[in-house]
Amino acid sequence: MINRYLVYMFIVVINLFNLIYGQVKYYDRKYDSFDGDYFVQNPRLLQRYIECFLDKGPCTPVGRVFKSVLPELITTSCAKCTPSQKNFARKTFDAFKKFLPNEYDELKKKIDPTNIYIDSFEKAISGD
Fold first, then answer.
1. Which Gene3D superfamilies would you find in this protein's record (predicted)?
2. How far apart are the C-alpha atoms of 128 and 123, rounded to whole Å?
3. Which CATH entry fits the domain spanning 25-125: 1.10.2080.10, 1.10.443.10, 1.20.120.430, 2.40.50.100?
4. pTM higher than the cut 0.70
5. What average pLDDT does this structure show over 40-57?
């Protein structure tokens, strides 16, 4: 009887451990409602953010947050991104490529100088 009890408790403890530590940790969700469409359709705003990311201009408080997680986003292929964060990242990077291609290339070289992470990152946020 004790053996069954010990086995049962062991299973409960393992499941509890997996529940607590096995969950995917996401980035802060407070920016999930950030209006990505407005952002990418505003060339002046896009320019200000990419200048922030490239250390060529001042950063807004939101820009500082995005800039601080940007290297991890790229190297982990946005592993801790919520679906809405992936969508926002896709829209933003697509807009950078379309409207600011030179700055986008510079940003890629800054964040991924060996060019080993960017393709996986872009595939991960593509939604395919």
1. Insect odorant-binding protein A10/Ejaculatory bulb-specific protein 3 (1.10.2080.10)
2. 7
3. 1.10.2080.10
4. yes
5. 93
